[in-house]
Design brief:
alpha+beta; about 25% helix; globular
């Protein structure tokens, strides 16, 4: 009987842990450098688009992010090491199907952030973004 109770408790706890893992959100941070020719910003001030021009034989579609809001957080260069940054080189390794799978797959839930370098080398700017695939 005691073993049956312990088994029941174990199964209940493992069920809770797997539910927490399913509901967790993964955060992805993308490095964006306005001075690089393959990274462009376009659109009006309140409708900015951040575009990565992908250039590999298996994927020619750009990766585009739209800022979620106008709130920008400054971060210092020293704190950059604490983020697991994805960069242009990383994005350029995907084929069209792989990039679709990465961005459009619902599980696990994902949040996207840009860490943007403008003209200053002292501070970077963090902003939450949406991903879109098409050019509008």
């Amino acid at each position: 009987m005691k073993n049956l109770i312990l088994l029941f408790i174990f199964l209940s706890l493992s069920s809770c842990v797997s539910q927490v893992k399913k509901d967790s959100i993964q955060k992805y941070y993308f490095y964006f450098d306005r001075t690089q020719p393959n990274m462009k910003v376009y659109g009006k001030l309140h409708e900015l688009r951040y575009l990565y021009e992908i250039n590999n034989p298996y994927n020619y579609e750009p990766v585009i992010f739209i800022p979620k809001d106008s709130i920008v957080k400054e971060i210092s260069i020293e704190k950059l090491k604490s983020y697991d940054l994805k960069d242009y080189k990383w994005l350029n390794t995907f084929s069209g199907l792989e990039i679709d799978k990465f961005f459009f797959e619902d599980t696990p839930k994902k949040e996207y952030y840009l860490i943007e370098k403008k003209e200053s080398n002292k501070f970077l700017y963090l902003r939450k973004v949406y991903f879109i695939q098409e050019i509008d």
